[in-house]
Design a protein that fits this description.
By secondary structure, the chain is an alpha/beta fold. Helices cover about 25% and strands about 20% of the residues. Strands 3-2-1-6-9-10-11 form a seven-stranded mixed sheet. A two-stranded antiparallel sheet has the order 4-5. It starts with 10 loop residues before the first helix and ends with a strand.
């Protein structure tokens, strides 16, 4: 699927200027993080992404959608969360564990203060585990084929792989349009391709 030029990052040019090997994930992450910290948020409205999510992602009232509480320049999904809660869709947040890369998910009704779990990730105060039907995934960068560059811990790749072995799920990445890259990201056997990626400017569906 072709992504419009307006929905690509100038960070991709940065990668080329510094002649970073496109197989070197560590250095790609460093530059992607630097770029993400300098994205102009006035050009990238989280509310616009929420509207695109609502109009393009099929969510049944009986389904559970796993999101995340944004940290350190991650794309803010709280507008998406609020829209789903107004529709009485069940929300879940990820629970990371120090003993395994596979995350679990706990229901959250938006009530009560979140508490810090392992790795400083905010989790519901009372855990009620559930398996999601739709998983919303953060990222540092994404390419034209639905591949994402994560932070390197492997939590989402491991978790998506485990869920996909059990049932059909929809993995939806959310990002700033400026996090797209013009080259193919390096992909390893354990990397999980996303079904869709939504930015404030476009919806990219990789299922076809």
């Amino acid at each position: 699927m072709r992504i419009p030029f307006s929905d690509t990052v100038l960070a991709a040019l940065l990668f080329f200027i510094y002649k970073i090997p496109m197989t070197n994930k560590k250095e790609l992450r460093e530059h992607a993080l630097f770029h993400m910290e300098h994205i102009n948020l006035e050009d990238e409205s989280a509310e616009d992404a929420a509207a695109l999510f609502q109009s393009h992602v099929p969510v049944a009232d009986t389904q559970t959608v796993a999101l995340y509480w944004p940290m350190a320049h991650e794309f803010d999904v709280r507008f998406i969360m609020d829209d789903l809660m107004r529709r009485n869709v069940q929300i879940a947040l990820p629970i990371a564990h120090k003993t395994t890369r596979e995350m679990t998910f706990s229901k959250w009704d938006g009530k009560g203060d979140l508490v810090k779990g392992d790795f400083g990730i905010f989790v519901p105060p009372a855990l009620e585990l559930v398996e999601p039907d739709i998983v919303v995934v953060p990222m540092l960068a994404f390419d034209l084929k639905g591949n994402r560059l994560g932070r390197g811990a492997g939590h989402y790749d491991t978790t998506l792989a485990a869920l996909r072995k059990k049932r059909n799920i929809l993995a939806v990445g959310v990002a700033f349009a400026a996090q797209a890259v013009l080259f193919n990201l390096p992909v390893e056997d354990h990397d999980q391709r996303l079904d869709m990626i939504i930015t404030p400017k476009a919806v990219h569906d990789f299922r076809t």
